[in-house]
Specification:
The protein is built from ten helices and ten strands. The protein is of the alpha/beta class and 265 residues long. The protein has one domain: TIM Barrel, CATH 3.20.20. The strands form two sheets. It has an eight-stranded parallel beta sheet. A two-stranded parallel ribbon has the order 3-5. Helix 6 links the parallel strand 7 and strand 8. Helix 2 runs parallel beside helix 4. It is globular, with a radius of gyration of 17 Å. It starts with a strand and ends in a 6-residue tail after the last helix.
Length: 265
Amino acid sequence: MRIIDPHLHLNMMRGKDLDALAIAGVEAAVLPIPHIMPWMQSAANLIKMWDNFVEFQVKHPASLGIHVRVLLGIPFYGMAEEAVEECLQKLPEYLQHPNVCGVGEIGMDAGIEVEERLFRVHLQIAKEANLPVVCHTPTPKEPQAQTVLDQIIRVIHEEGFPIDRAVLDHSGKNTIKTRIAEMDARIGLSLCYDKLRPEDAAEIVRDFPEARDRIFINSEFGNSGEGYFSVPRAVRDMRMVGVSRDVIDQVVWDNPKKFFNLDVN
């Protein structure tokens, strides 16, 4: 089974794990800028990360058989205020790089004013660049998960950003119905220690056939080591709960390939 992992922080992975991931069937991945960085980073540090992503983090996995494209953006935690402004000026130019396929991960976690302001600017920049976005939402166990998800959806509509070009990532069972009800939004199922298990994703795909054309399954951080193999495990679990191979192909290959316009055959 061919797999695209549409939210994988593979810059944190060891070469040995990347090699094993390719053997497990992951042929492509989307690497986003993290939403949080060590505190008070400079613009120079973030721009070095952008350069690293669009060059080294694309070429190194390719040598192991994984086609990678990247998302760029500005973390909403960990950047000095003047650094945010400097990077906002440079971001549109970087988004023109051929290895960039979107903006992200952007979004909100606490729903505070500074997060919302940066989120709105990111949406405006993505709209001007005609690129999709991947939106971080609070982890399912956080008490503000539903409230901030509603806030994110409201801001997307207020900014006139097309909701069908936004992935509402990190869904939990407690917010999945809200994401499905937002009829055109893409639904990210992140299989990470603080979000969903592979078997949870399998059950969601089985139980919500009306949303299958909008579901993406990703391993996000993976919690290191074996956690990075959560999407191949979800493929196995979908087979075990009776999901057809055509549907599995749809959620782990067709959906992300089309959404991010990935040039993989």
